[in-house]
Give the backbone structure.
Amino acid sequence: MELKLSILIVEDEEKIRIGLRDFLEFRGYGVTEACDGMEARQRVAEGDFDIILLDLMLPKVSGEELCRQWRQSDLQVPIIMLTAKGQEKDKITGLNLGADDYITKPFSLEELHARIQAVLRRTDPARKVGQTFEFGHWQVDIAGLKIRSDNQKLEISKREGEILQYFAAHPHRIISREELYGKVWGETMTELGTRTVDMHIAKLRSKIEGNAPEPRIIKTVRGAGYQYGG
Ligand code: CA
């Protein structure tokens, strides 16, 4: 039931591309490679990626051009630009074109990984569900840290809001504790992480499910995780 996040690496320098691929595969991501702009365009047309690492200087079609076209065609996949050292102007261009972040070469793989996690955390649920959304019979207001039903209004913590947002962005899907901890907390799972997730879910349930004997809004899927809207 493990779900791999999929990353597209667009980089023409083979050494860098292979280094990135090996590192990210080792970290548990599903990796697809493209070595020029045309191939990148093809891969994006065929595949469904969670994030794109996009080198700026590419043969055939530049990273800049790709980024512009993808955003114009309303592609919502987060993009991290890989820029060469000192190209201050390129970073700004990249962000203006709709990239979510950039990282300057040479970069450490750990730093890149941290950026990837940060971008995924920041963009994924928010893009899909926005700042206010329905959750069961509740209306959630993330910015105001409130949930409201026909006859109740309750406060939630920022973290609780992020959890609800993540579930709302992935309805019907079974979400493991690992995934939730990775996406909402931005951490790799530990024993403490498991308890932290369960505690937060228990607290959220006491708010949104009241005293219902069996949770109906956020369900437990034995041995797999949690599910909203199942
Ligand atoms: Ca290049």
Notes: The chain has a mean pLDDT of 89. The chain has two domains: 6-123, 130-228.
